[in-house]
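Note to self: the last two entries modelled the partners one at a time, which told us nothing about the interface. This time every component goes in together.
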Amino acid sequence: MVSIQPEDFDAAAEYQALRDSGAGTGAIVTFTGLVRDSGDKPDVRGLYLEHFPGMTEAVIEDVIQQATARWDIREARVIHRIGHLELSDQIVFVGVASAHRGDSFRACQFIMDALKTSAPFWKKELMSEGEHWVEQKASDRQQADQWLDQDSDRES
Amino acid sequence: MVSIQPEDFDAAAEYQALRDSGAGTGAIVTFTGLVRDSGDKPDVRGLYLEHFPGMTEAVIEDVIQQATARWDIREARVIHRIGHLELSDQIVFVGVASAHRGDSFRACQFIMDALKTSAPFWKKELMSEGEHWVEQKASDRQQADQWLDQDSDRES
Amino acid sequence: MTASNITVSVRFFARLREALDTDQLSMELPTGSNAGQVLETLARRGGEWSQLTGGTPLMIAVNQAMARPSTPLNNNDEVAVFPPVTGG
Amino acid sequence: MTASNITVSVRFFARLREALDTDQLSMELPTGSNAGQVLETLARRGGEWSQLTGGTPLMIAVNQAMARPSTPLNNNDEVAVFPPVTGG
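The predicted structure of the combined assembly is written out below.
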């Protein structure tokens, strides 16, 4: 399930949907990203998120397919918001249900890392005076690249 | 926050508590373990969980302290149920809030891996005929040991 | 469009869309052109357009799939050009 | 307890508690004994008790902290013996 939406999402409902993925589910890992009020620029008042409609959904579906081929996962759900966001707002949700915890953890982190470098979203930081487009971090690229070197080792 | 309890827990309320950990929180990772109905023994009807009161809480608090020393995390919450559990019941919750996603993912997985091999819980599988104590898996021990070899590398 | 030309649409996003003040344009290219030649052709307009080949890191998608400058183009292809992505 | 002895309580959990049919017991040991000597002393009772030194993997905690057979004991210490843990 992939949804790109301006509306906020209900993380509890997403978790419940993952729980309902069947009686073989033994592990659920969720990631939620929030708009932070501090960090690089303490002056940030909010964000504006632009995306490439159509391609965004296709890229994320492809990332989920890659995760499904690599790990034994039962369901993956991704929600990404667009448009104007306030401080502390939820931006992104990635949730994975699987039989075993290792698969859930790895698939969830892989999807999030790949989304950060492949899905066509762009973030603009809104300051008290002016605004500016966020630059991609080298660390995000390295984080995504690490999956290229790893075996899909599993534990039960 | 550590709680050992026979009662079910509300994962949504735990997530909300992690969101309320402050405006510097940018990433929340949660793990939930459920009683699976299939896998090694398709005949399992439920679980009984015994623990060592007092020591269990102390071990988990210590694991959270280790995670806090190793990664930049803002809050960690662990709930583990004891007593009789039915199929599909929630067993365990581990949730971590931090500024950056890498810290949340690693701390959450570290806490769960350490809990699996250090916290004095014992699981008995209840079958349609009889019951038996679950043996520890070598893979759980290996999964926990891997953290000994890793640097606490961070990305933002 | 002449027999030896193809027409492609080109889309821009985010910082690039704002800098070029352009969402989308249509252009003709010789048959056999690749995605990199779209950028080279537009860069020759000068001004802000020069950044399309100016060394700033850019990503290219053809028909909504990630592509490279060497990706060949067909008639009616959609070429998207944008800065490295920053979602999540 | 004599001057040269210490008294410790010993607790058992899970499979071990059931096999020994014992939650807890109290025992005297010579001053200077360690946790491993608790297991050796009890194993001499024979029967199910022999598994305390029989090579089955066991974990030991002294005063609710993980310990080893070599961990020294003091008077009134609590020694817990249990199978490898299986929570989560």
